[in-house]
Amino acid sequence: MRDSLPSTGSGRPGFWLLPAVFTLFLLSGCAEDQTVLERQVLFSLPVGMLETQFDSLGYGTAAPRNKNRIVMRNDIIGISNGVRNKIMEFTSYGDLLSMYYHPQQNPKPITLLEDSPEQQQRRLINKKAHPYTFQEIGEIAYTSSNTLLVEDHVPDSRRFYDEQAGVNLRHVVVRFDESGRYRDYLGQEGIGGTPFPVIEDIQVNRDDHSIVISKTPDAHQVFWFNQQGDRLYSLEFTTQTLPGLGDQGLIPTIDRIVPAASGPFLFLHINYYPESREGSEGDQEYVQSIVYRFNIAQEQYDRSFPLPLNLVQPPGTLSLSGTEVQFLFHLVGLDAQGRFFFISPSLQDQHRVIVMDSQGRVVYRSFIAMSDDRILFRDLSVTPRGILISLQVYNDRTEVVWWRSDQALDS
Hints:
Blueprint: E1 3-6, E2 15-18, E3 40-46, E4 68-73, E5 76-81, E6 86-90, E7 96-101, E8 113-114, H1 117-122, E9 128-131, E10 140-142, E11 148-153, E12 160-162, E13 167-169, E14 171-176, E15 182-187, E16 190-191, E17 198-204, E18 210-215, E19 219-225, E20 231-238, E21 250-259, E22 265-274, E23 288-295, E24 300-306, E25 310-312, E26 324-327, E27 330-334, E28 340-345, E29 350-356, E30 362-369, E31 377-382, E32 388-393, E33 397-403, H2 405-410
Parallel strand pairs: 7-9, 8-9
Antiparallel strand pairs: 1-31, 2-26, 3-33, 4-5, 5-6, 6-7, 10-11, 11-14, 12-13, 14-15, 15-16, 17-18, 18-19, 19-20, 21-22, 22-23, 23-24, 25-26, 27-28, 28-29, 29-30, 31-32, 32-33
C-alpha cells in the first residue's frame, strides 16, 4: 500500500554506482518520459494535539518510532497519527468526518460528538468520535463497506514469545464496523487468535479479503482472511525459498508482498543484489528487480516480469564518464485494475513513477516532485482508482497531497 520514509536528506537510499554502458531493459530519456504530474495539496493540518491537528513530535534527525499512515477508499481519507494513537477520517476537501482515538492520550474532541447509544438510536450525528484504548497503532486499511482495520498491540500480559522464530508476538488487527463500533480483532488463526509477529502491511483486495504481511528475522509471513475473519491461507517466504536466477551469485531480498486485485495470488517484488558491489574490470554490477506471481492454489510461482533499470546521470558529469547512478524502484501498490505502481528516487527533488500492467508492460511513466530535504516524513499509497496520495510532514505543518495518475492513465 505504500512508500514510507523518514527524511532522506542528501543521502538518498537505494542507489548503486554503475558503469555507463548497458544492454538491459532501461528507461529511456525520451520526451514523454519527462512528463511531470501536477502536485495538488488537498489540505494541511497544523501541528498540535486537537482532532484536526497532527502531532509531529519526535520527527527530525531520527526515523519516527510510531507509524503514521494515509489510505483512501470510498472517498474517505484515513490518516493515522501514531504519536497520539488516533485515526482521523477526512473528505478530500479536508472536512473531518470522524476520529478514533485513545481518550487518555488526546483532548476530548470539540468539533465531534462522542458516539453513544442515544446518538446511534437517533441517528442525528454524522460526525462522530470513537474512543478506544489503543496500545500502539500502526498500519490501517479499509474494506469496500468501510470496515476499518487497524494494527495495534496487545497488553504486555497477553504477549507471547515464539522461541522457534525468535520474536515477540504482540501485534493484532482490530476491526471497527462501518458505524465506527468495535467489532473484533484478528490474530494468526482468525478472530481472537494468537498475536502476529511484526506487521509490515495490511491489504484488502476486491473480494474484501484481509491480507496481513508479517516479518520475522528469517521470513515474511502472509495471513489471508475472508470477510468473516476466517483464515484461508498461511504462507511463509524465506530467502532460501525465493526464486533464484541461476548461478549468478545474486542475493534475493523482498521489497514488498502484495495480494492480487482479486483471486488467490500474491505478487512478490524481489531485488537481486550482487554479493559484492566491487566487480572486476569490465563487470557490470547492478541490482535486478523482478515481480513474481505466486499461485496459492498451485503452491508455485507461475508468472514473472522484470522491472526496467532506472539509471540517472548525476548533474555536472559527462554521459561517457563511466559512472551512472541506479535508483531502485519500490512497489507502492496495485489499483483495482491490477496495475502496478512503482516509485524511485531521482535527482533534484524528483521521483520517477512507472505503472506496469500484469504482463510487465510499462503503460505510464512520469515524474512527481517531492522535496525530500524539507519533508521530515512521508507516506505514499495508491487508491483503488489509481490515485497517488501522500502524507507529508514538515516542521510547521502536515500536508495531504495527491497526483491524479488515474486521469493520466485514462486519457
